[in-house]
Amino acid sequence: MKNWFRQHTRALRHTLLGLLRQPVSSLLNLLVIAIAAALPMLLWLLLASAGGVANRLPVEPQLTLFLKAERDAAATKQLEKALAARPELAKIRYVPRDEALRQLENATGTSGLTAGLGDNPLPDAFVLTLRGTAAAPLAALQAELGGHPLVAEIQADSAWAQRLQRLIELGRGLFDVLAVLLALTLLLVTGNAIRMQILTRREEIEVARLIGATDAFIRRPFIHFALVQGVLGGALACLLVWLMLARLNPAVVELARAYGQQFALQLPDWRVALCVVGATAALTLGGAWLAVWRHLRDFR
Hints:
300 residues
């Protein structure tokens, strides 16, 4: 056990010294690994941030009917009864103009909006919630009710929220594709780096074979090299993503605040960083193992 630990410690020390002896080429290799790991990590964090906003949005298909000011109470009651009899509507809520004004004042953080107007400019409205989430019934009902004599305007309130969720789903599909492509990139980059090291140390490996070195002994320095590069590259990727998001976050927070919302980009925590470093190290190890296994066969 002590001999095994001593051999791995020696191989790890030799790897670190080799990286320090060639700082420029080592830094370039680490940047390639870091960029390949940072891109899917950045996309995943952006999707997680957008997903948190989408989860707070109403996703049920909703229509808001803004009523005309010139109408009588009997006609309004008749419209409400007609809407209540429709089977495709799950919920109907009448919003008087005074309540709508209070909601607007609470949402914007202001009061006394009508002080300079003399009257409440907002109309009465019906908020309709449909059953299910299909878009076709929503469009059909919007076209039908838009021609009602009491309706001044009709608006689909949650259509944009549904579009946002569809965009997030598309982004998740892109994340899967990007993660697979960049994982293959890490395997190829690491495999090529190990292949070049094997070719430059070909004579040394042949001599080690002649004096009885095992495959594990020959493989060990290359595996340690890939492991160190994977860990350092993954850590550098986390640092790059954290710096980018931290730089963007103040502008994003101010933009959301201008619209009366609270939103910030999700920064990578220690669990995300650990997953990225672990995945990067595993991929570089896999690339190194395949490269060493393939080339060691040529020395037999």
